[in-house]
């Protein structure tokens, strides 16, 4: 899939990245193709990362002009982010005329395979190879969903156990309070020992 947009230039000290994200499963081939339009006195940088715990970095291109390509295999089930910055050259101030047109294409899995690899194969063989890639992507996706479901199920079980323990503790405290009140009431019904003996002697 692809997207095209204009990116305004900003002073280097205040430049803010503009990121495009896409969820991708682990061990998946990804090809990011960036085409940058003409623009003077400004510099485009591109960085590709993911939002996994490892915060994997897949590539960084500086001062991109015309076209560049980044190909990599993902290391985790995560959102990959393609981030762009457009920094003005020193001494220039922001102005609507300072912008670059970005044409971004992200090919994932079977879409990212170079068709030249299949040129020497018969049509049926080439189609089977592509289908193998698609099936592998489906298997990986289902495995990810299975693991996520297991994690959610474990989380629900833990939460249920915590709630049960809380209710047990609450009932225990309530019973303890009732017993304490009962003990207090029983003590109030008993006569003092000294008074009892005093009445007896009288």
Automatic annotation (TrEMBL):
One protein family per Pfam: EMP24_GP25L
UniProt feature coiled coil, ranges: 121-148
Source species, domain of life: Eukaryota
Gene3D superfamilies: ATP synthase, F1 complex, epsilon subunit superfamily, mitochondrial
Domain GOLD: 17-108
Major localization listed first in the record, in broad terms: membrane
Subcellular location: Membrane
Alphabetical UniProt keywords: Coiled coil, Membrane, Signal, Transmembrane, Transmembrane helix
One GO CC term, this protein: proton-transporting ATP synthase complex
Classification via PROSITE patterns: GOLD
Topology with respect to the bilayer: Single-pass type I membrane protein
GO molecular function list: proton-transporting ATP synthase activity, rotational mechanism
Family: Belongs to the EMP24/GP25L family.
Protein name: 2341_t:CDS:1
UniProt organism field: Cetraspora pellucida
């Amino acid at each position: 899939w692809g997207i095209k947009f204009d990116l305004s230039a900003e002073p280097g000290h205040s430049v803010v990245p503009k990121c495009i994200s896409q969820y991708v499963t682990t061990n998946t081939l990804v090809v990011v193709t960036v085409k940058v339009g003409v623009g003077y006195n400004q510099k485009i940088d591109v960085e590709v990362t993911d939002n996994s715990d490892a915060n994997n970095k897949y590539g960084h291109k500086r001062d991109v002009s015309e076209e560049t390509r980044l190909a990599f295999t993902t290391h985790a089930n995560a959102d990959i982010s393609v981030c762009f910055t457009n920094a003005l050259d020193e001494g220039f101030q922001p102005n609507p005329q300072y912008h670059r047109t970005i044409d971004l294409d992200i090919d994932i899995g079977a879409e990212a395979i170079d068709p030249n690899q299949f040129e020497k194969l018969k049509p049926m063989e080439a189609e089977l190879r592509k289908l193998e890639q698609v099936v592998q992507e489906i298997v990986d996706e289902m495995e990810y969903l299975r693991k996520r479901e297991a994690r959610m199920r474990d989380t629900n079980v833990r939460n249920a156990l915590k709630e049960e323990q809380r209710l047990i503790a609450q009932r225990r405290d309530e019973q303890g309070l009732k017993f304490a009140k009962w003990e207090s009431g029983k003590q109030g019904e008993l006569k003092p020992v000294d008074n009892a003996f005093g009445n007896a002697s009288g």
